[in-house]
Each structure stands twice: as C-alpha cells, then as structure tokens.
Amino acid sequence: MIRLTFSQMRRSIPRLVASSIAVLVATAFVTATLLGGNLITDITYRSVTASYGDADVLVTPETSALGAADAEALMALPEIDHAEGSVSLFGQIEVDGLNDSGNVQPVPAHGALDPFEVIAGALPGPGEVALSESSARRLGLGPAADQSWQVGGTATLSVQFYPADGASAEVDSEDSLEDVSEDLRVSGIVADPPAINSILSPVVVDRSLAEEWAALEQSGGDAPVEYTEVVVVAAPGVGDQAAAEAASVAMGDQANVRTVHEVAQQRAADFTGDTRMLVGFVLAFAAVAMFVAGLVIANTFQVLIAQRRHTLALLRCVGATRSQIRRSVLVEALTVGVLASIGGILLGLGLGQIALAVAGTQDLGIPIPAVVSPSLATILVPLLTGTLVTVIAGLAPAKAATAVAPISALRPAEVPALRRGGSTLRLVLALLLGIPGTLMLVGAVVLSSVSDSGDIMLLSLAVGVLGGMLSLAGVLVGAVFMVPAIIRVAGGLWARLAGRSRATVRLATANSARNPRRTSATSTALLIGVGLVVMVATGAASARATLENELLSYFPVDIAVSSPGPELSNAQLTAMSEVEGIEQIATRRAVTVEVDHGSESSLFEVFEVTDDLREVIRDPAFLPDLETGTVRMDQHDAEWLGVSDGESITFRVGSAEAPAADEATEVELQVDIDTSRSFPMMVSAQDMDTMAPDIAPAHAWLRIADGANELDVVRDVQDAVAEVSGGAAPWVSGEAAERAALDQVIETLLAVIIGLLGVAVVIAVIGVANTLSLSVIERRREHALLRAVGMTRGQLRGSLVVEGVLLAVVGTGLGTVAGLVYGWAGSSIVLSGVGDMHLVVPWGYVAACAAGAVIAGVLASVLPARSAAKAKPVAALAA
C-alpha cells in the first residue's frame, strides 16, 4: 500500500505542488522568524561585549565608590590576573579650527581589555591621542581620494569641570565652569564602536591623563579618581564564574560583581525589549500563515480525493480496507509535510543569509556575522510545525476517502447538487459566539472612554480582546451562511452590468455557491489575511493621526535652535533662513531667573511670548496673549514653588547664581497656571524688557513648509548652522523631527507587519486556485455538456475567471470590513487615554487589497480554466 501511495503521489505532483508551496512559505516564515530572533540576540551580545574586549568579570559600585585601591585588592587575588578601573568623560577635540565632541577613554593596561580596532597608526602613549574614524573625518583627517588617514598632526583636547572651591555642580551656570586643555599628537585612528554602546566617538588617551582629568571633572581635583566600573581578567585556567565568586567575596556589599556574559545578556535584553517577546509577536503572524496553509492543504487533498474517486473504489473492490485507505492519505500528507517543511527551512535559511550579505554591505554601526548559525530549535520547530499542520489538515480528506463506496464510485459521478452548507446547530453556535463577542467589543470601547486610568484601560483591553476573539469566531463559524448569500448578491449585481456576458456570470455565480462549505473555507482564508492587514493598517493610521494631533498640541514647534553661547549670531540666523524647506523663522529671548520658595531657591528658564512666535508654531493656542505683569506656568512648577493661581511671585534676575544681567533685578509677577500641558514659564515681551533689557535672542523657532521632508530639513538646518559656527554649534531639535521619526517608525513597523501578513494572503490565493481546481474536477461532465451545446472555450474560461474573482472579492470585502471594525475598536481602547481619537480609514491599503483581490482571482483561475477548456466534450461525457 505504501508503494501504491508513492505511485499516486508521483502522478499527482502538479496538484501537490500547490499545497507544498503553502506549507513551504509558512515554514520559511517560521524559520526566518526564529533565525531573526537568534541573530538579534547574537548581534546585540556581540555589540555589548565589544566594549570589554576579552574581560571576564565586571565590578560596579554598589554602596560606595570604587578606586585604585579596590583594583589593586582584586589583582592580589590568585583567581584574578588583572583588574583596572574604567573612566570616561565628555571632551571637545579641535584640529585646525574644526571642532568635535567625544568620549575620552584611557588606553587599557592589559591587552585582553583592549576594545579598540586600530585602522591607522597606533594607540596613544603619553602626550598622544587616537581619534575614531568618524571623528577624524569631521576634523578633516579622513582619507581623501588620493591619500590615507592623516596621522601625526596636533589636536587640542579640552574638558570642562567645576573647581573644588567654586560653584556647586547643582547650579546651572556656565560662568562657574572651568576648562583644561592640552595639545596632543594624533597617534592613530580607531574604528567606531557599535552604535548600541555609545553615540559619542571615542577619544583615546594615555591612562594617566584620563584619570587626572576625570578627577577634575568629579571633584575639581580635590579627591582621587572614582571608577565607573572595574573590569577583571581571570587568571589562566580559572573560569569567569570562579573569578566572579572570588571578587564578590573580596568586595562584599561594596560592589556588584557579575560576569561579562551575564552583563551582556542583561543589556541585550534591555536593548531589544526582550527578544523573546519580539519573536513571539512575529510567530503570532506565522501561526496565522500556518492556519491559512492548513485550509489550503485541506482543500488540496479534497481535490486529490475527487480526482482519485475511481482509483479508491477499485482499491476497495480488490480488498483494501478503510484503515488502509486512511493511512494512505495520511502517509501522503506526512510526506508532503516533511518535504515541504525541509524546503521551507532551506528557503528561510537562504533568505537569512541573503539578508546578512546585504546588511554586511551597509554601514550599520553594529557587528554583523558573515554566515547564519541556525540553532537546533530553528530547524526542529519549523519541521515539526509544518509536518503537524499538514497531517492535521489531511485528517478530514482521509476520512472522506474512506467513505467512497466500491460499487457506487465505479458509476459516473453525478453533478453535485445545490445544498445547504450549514446546520441549525452551526447557526446557533455562530450567533452564541458572535452576538456576545460584539457586545463585549462595544462595551470595551465604551468602558475605555469613561476613564483613562491604567486599571480601566487594562480591563477594557482584556474585555476587548476576548470580545474580538469571540466575534471573529462567530464570523468564521457563520461564514458558511454569509459567504454564499453575499456571492449570490454580488453575482446578481455583476450579471445586470455584464451585458452579453450575463449568462456566463450567472452560471459562475451558481457554481460559486454550489458547495457552501468549500467556498466559505476559501473566502475565510482571504478574510483572515486581508482582515489582519486592514486591521493593522487602520490601527497604525488612527494611532498616527491621534498622536500627531497630540504632538502638535503639546509640542507645536517644528524646529527649535538653541545657542550654547549668549546669543545666536546673524550668520547662524541667515544660514537657517536660507535652508530649503524653511517657511518662517522667529527668534526667542529667554532668561534664567531665581525664585525663593521657603528656605530654598530654584532656577527656572523664562521666555517671552511675541506675535512672531505665534505665527511660527503649529498650535497658536500654545502661546497665550499675556498681559504685562503676568507669568504663565504649568501645574508642576506651581506645585514645586507652592503658589496658586492669581498669587504674586518674585523673580530675581542677575544674581550670582543666574548671571543674566550686570546687576540683580527683582520683578514681581502674577501667576497664571495652565493645567493642560507642561511648558517653560512664559512672560510678555514688555516684562522680558524689564527683567533683561539687554539680553539677545539665544533661541530660534523655525516652521517647515508643508510638504517638505521634515527629517531632511532638520538635518539641513544642523549642517547649515554648524558650517557657520566658529566654535560649538547650536543644538537643533524640534517636534517636526520627532513627528517625522514617529511616522518613520510606524511606517517601518507597518511595512514589516503587512509583509508578514502578506504571506497569509499569498497562501490564501493558492487556496482560491485549489478550490477552482476542485470545482473543475467535480463539474467535468457539466462542462462537457456546456461545450456540447455550444459554449466556447473562451466562455468556459470566462466563467471560471468570474468564479475566482467572486471568491476573492467577497473574501477581501469581508476581511476589509472586519479589519476596519477591529482596527477602530482596538485604536479606541488603546489610545483612549492619549487624547482626542481620530479614527482613520487607510484608503491606500483598502484600495490595494481590492485591486489585489481582483488580480488574485484572475490569476488563481488561469490554470483551472485552462484545464477545463482543454477537456474534450466526448471524452468527458464518456467518463
């Protein structure tokens, strides 16, 4: 029987290819997902450990600071070969008038702790410095077309610190800072670190200089340097756990001791937000693809059973038992599942390798492995899943194969009669699931709108998810009633518009509704895939519209530019205004004031409100029309100062702590509290003239022209002001960049998710083709009669095309409606506490799904229509 099974499979290869493709695609999806999770973990781990070289143990302060004595105590342990402290500080580097900032780090004293990759020259000694490749390029030391890295010149390194006997670091005043600088020889260029570790370029110097300046930064040079951490190399033959245990005993409660492996795992989890959650999220879409693939497989085997009806009857006549027939079908399903799953695994690994090859050519700032390294789970999980789904999908066709009667099956097959697709029990079950589920979904939306507390939101989310699952289950169970009815209505409308092809459309409509269960199963596969696509697109579009509206309300400034010095220069203002995409610019004056509250005093920034600023911002209500003698502040500042609405408050300007003017000035203003948002304190232009009449604008607000690319404009402004700034460049930020970044993140996630869900849609289209193929087999005598009475091959092909389009359009239409409803409901629940909801219809995705449905229906009908048109009427009638 096994030999006969494989013989039948060889004769049915074209038909098995369809189900194999469905399983192959779904299995490749699972493989790529698991492989991607492993790669994320591996890349993140490599990135984190890259900053520690080959260190084994990391010691961080817990109850008291770590110093040189602690490092020496650790080195005295027999389990430890070397220990040294880590210091880093922010510094400015200058070469021939060009400036850059970086993270000053010392050269490791032990080779195993060296994280730097030297690409030119050498690591520095006393009086030398090594720069990163990105910093070297910004400083004009990068390799030109005809020369290499410029090593050997002089660079000036400087850092700022608070002197030991000067102002406290608590005070926000640049005048209290001092700086120290030194001219150093550029000894070499090192590779940029992984982006995950630092956004600052490393500036590598001799350890003695780094520790000296770190002590200045920490205490003004009044105390020994304190280490941020101590890195440890285990003695030869000692494992990292043994070294960590010895170090832990020696340090006691003073420090936290962990292996570098443990630290890397923790930081990798922090960075990725727990890769397992990400993998689980994507595997949920893989489960959808597998479910749809199961529907396709079941339909495919129904096609095979219909094709082999006479063969199965003959086998029963010569003694084959029902169990043997069942085992034959299941062995066939098992074989298809194993082979297709293996193909899917190979495809998934191949796609992963291609992705690595492409990523390796990009400058991503993270270490990318050259080849994929699949784990055992990456192989076994897709193999077992694909095989299991295929076998389960084959159970119902296997049972149907055993129902073939030996005698009746030898007679010519009758044309299937129109019959009801569902029982009364199915209808009752659909209503019991759908009605309560819908009520729960509506109730969750209403509940979320009542209160924005976290507990209420979690409760409404839980109720909404449960209601959505129940209502969707009701739709799926009741699809056998809805789909044929909708097909009849849609086909009737199409027939009225079909003109001379009306008979063809009517015939196709009747044939589409002939087998309600099969038709509903096919449309359900499309409903699930399209519904998820539209739901995600609707949720993302609604979230984006809601969040953008809130961002415009709370942060209405497109671009804000702040000078690190006392004012923005005319050259900087001119450079900003000349950037393409900038529609309007307005300067803003601000002053630091001191306010007494109780026995303490605090510093605040106060800025003026002008008509020019109102014209620049997106939400004019953000800047009120303030009367002279009034200061507007938010609820947080009012509570901190202990003042209420309408009270008077005294601002002191020009004191030692807030040196904004030559002499201290006291101004009494009336408090106006706005509880709707957070913002710096605001005063009128007249009050600003009173507080600081000679202060120049150090800030500017810029409005971006509608339609311009926000991210490009922000970058252009950054480049423009940096080019005309002799010293430190102004800080450029703004809500436009954040809004654009949010849009980019949402669009990227949306594209990824749509791509993942698209796998399910592709598999569902394969199911449409299978259903039409089964329809052709069941109606071969009917088609022969139609051909005998004058129907042309073109008309027969047209009938099957109409069937395919009807199936695809109905499934897509139901999926679109379901996706919109669930997307709106989910957005209303999740975003209810954010602000005013904006429910959006993603017309682009809806139109794409509609167009795709028509194209899919036509393509899915090509092969079945060709098969039906090739059949000879006489041969089909004699079958």
TrEMBL record:
GO cellular component: a single term: plasma membrane
Keyword RNA-binding: no
ABC3 transporter permease C-terminal domain span: 284-402, 756-873
Record GO terms (molecular function): transmembrane transporter activity
Compartments where located: Cell membrane
Keywords: Cell membrane, Membrane, Transmembrane, Transmembrane helix
Record-stated family: Belongs to the ABC-4 integral membrane protein family.
Protein name: Putative ABC transport system permease protein
Species classification: Bacteria, Bacillati, Actinomycetota, Actinomycetes, Micrococcales
